[in-house]
Design goal:
- By secondary structure, this protein is of the alpha+beta class.
- Helices cover 16% and strands 38% of the residues.
- It is built from 3 helices and 30 strands.
- The chain has a 5-stranded mixed beta sheet, with no helix packed on it.
- The radius of gyration is 38 Å and the shape is flat.
């Protein structure tokens, strides 16, 4: 702060200009002393965050202090203690108000998923010390932001209180296997499964099981995202997996059925009927069969599947097939596997599926660990991906992109056994490219039908008119003759 006195208004008066570090400039000058009295010899001193200004006025020492700071409130919550997960569908936030010489005139608060958001709208009164939030908190991690405003219109530092809610159960995991096709016989005696789930920040771990001939409730706890089984005998197997959130609440169970045996093996026609009955029986027991899972440590993070030899943060796609082979279906679900990136640091992904290879843009187009691909026709396709993540460097959050990864797949859908279905599929595939020709054909067909239908009616009425006119003239001639 710079102080001086001058006599621009006919008398000595103290003025000041304060330097703003945020704006990197001096603000407008402001009068400090009253204009009706002579004021000289200003002196400034600092006391903590405040500035004290003294000057001579009418043979006495006058003084003022600046009010440029207000302490933030002390925030706590009995329903949502910081660092713990809650199943309550609401949050009750409480705080102790700060002390300020100019008084507190209100608070600005908001709930969202941005960790460092600063609210600017005053929506709570000066006497408020509690805020009950019932409808704006989603499952997962969100933040309650609050700051105080004093009588000098100073905003305090924002308190970002982290809320962790697990009100609704997690969705069922998505399971893929590049070694074992679902529902089809294979001679490979070893199989490996990989799974993913939305809302991984809520996950404590997973329970899984592998059973033969009947579905069994998952009971083996793990924090991994994959499982491998070797030396399997011939038969029908069921792999089941469910997620466990950090309040010991279980998700729905995902079941993956596969057959170990010769590819020429004829599947029993009743296999799918028995499979449907087994799944219905399993689902009835599911809600009652789980027991609370309490591993030795409840803070064990879910371990990502890090490829061997990976350097630095990267991302890849785990397909439910070997992408080097020809794919016999145009719809599938694949998993996004980040390496060297914590789930809380992932901002989103840039994903594209196209018939030609192109650079992966630095724009978030997808969120979540599952890619749902539908309706691919016959041909070659390129699937590209890269990940945007956040890193804290020297107290500041910086955002980076991983390198791109592009995978080429060849789709050759299996031919339909019915000639009618094969012809219908061919017509539907050719329809978009021949839309103009088909539109003209239907327009011409409609015109022909309209002409034929209305032409017969017009001809009928024309003949009727001729008949009536002829009858009229004949009657008139007879009348004149008589």
């Amino acid at each position: 702060m710079v102080l001086w006195y001058d006599m621009r208004d006919g008398g000595a008066q103290i003025y000041a200009r304060r330097y703003s570090a945020d704006e990197n400039a001096f603000r407008q000058e402001a009068p400090v002393s009253a204009a009706r009295y002579e004021s000289r010899n200003p002196v400034v001193a600092s006391a903590g965050r405040r500035l004290l200004v003294f000057w001579e006025e009418r043979n006495v020492i006058m003084g003022k202090q600046t009010d440029v700071y207000v302490e933030p409130p002390v925030v706590f919550s009995e329903t949502n203690p910081e660092g713990l997960w809650s199943r309550l569908p609401f949050a009750v936030m409480q705080w102790r108000p700060p002390k300020d010489e100019s008084g507190i005139i209100g608070y600005a608060s908001i709930v969202n998923d941005i960790p460092d958001f600063n609210p600017t709208v005053v929506n709570l009164g000066p006497n408020a010390t509690i805020d009950k939030i019932t409808s704006t908190i989603p499952d997962g991690i969100s933040y309650y932001h609050i700051r105080a405003i004093d009588g000098a219109q100073n905003f305090s530092r924002t308190i970002h209180y982290r809320l962790q809610l697990n009100v609704n159960p997690l969705p069922a995991p998505v399971v893929v296997s590049a070694t074992t096709p679902q529902g089809k016989p294979t001679e490979v005696r070893s199989t490996e499964f990989t799974w993913g789930i939305e809302g991984v920040e809520r996950v404590k771990g997973f329970v899984y099981s592998l059973s033969k001939d009947s579905i069994r409730m998952p009971d083996l706890f793990t924090t991994d995202l994959n499982a491998r089984f070797d030396d399997l005998e011939e038969g029908t197997y069921f792999f089941s997996v469910a997620a466990v959130d950090k309040t010991n609440q279980f998700s729905r169970v995902a079941t993956y059925d596969f057959i170990i045996g010769s590819p020429d093996r004829v599947i029993d026609p009743d296999y799918y009927r028995r499979l449907a009955e087994e799944e219905r029986r399993f689902l009835k027991q599911e809600r009652f069969a789980f027991k609370p899972v309490t591993p030795d440590r409840t803070d064990v993070p879910v371990r990502p599947d890090v490829p061997a030899g990976a350097r630095g943060p990267s991302v890849s796609i785990r397909f439910p097939f070997d992408p080097r082979d020809v794919v016999d279906r145009g719809s599938f679900r694949a998993l996004i596997i980040p390496a060297g990136i914590g789930p809380e640091s992932i901002m989103g992904y840039s994903v594209y599926v196209d018939e030609r290879e192109r650079p992966v843009p630095r724009r978030i187009t997808h969120k979540g660990p599952v890619i749902d691909v539908k309706g691919l026709g016959r041909g070659d396709y390129y699937i590209g991906i890269r990940c945007k993540y956040a890193v804290s460097v020297d107290g500041r959050v910086r955002h980076y992109w991983t390198g791109p990864q592009v995978t080429r797949i060849t789709v050759r859908p299996a031919p339909d056994r019915s000639p009618l279905l094969y012809y219908a599929r061919g017509v539907m595939e050719r329809f978009p490219s021949r839309i103009a020709r088909i539109t003209m054909m239907f327009f011409g067909l409609g015109l022909v039908i309209t002409t034929i239908g209305f032409g017969l009616r017009i001809s009928f009425y024309f003949q009727l008119m001729r008949f009536r006119m002829g009858l009229f003239y004949r009657l008139r001639i007879r009348k004149m003759s008589g």
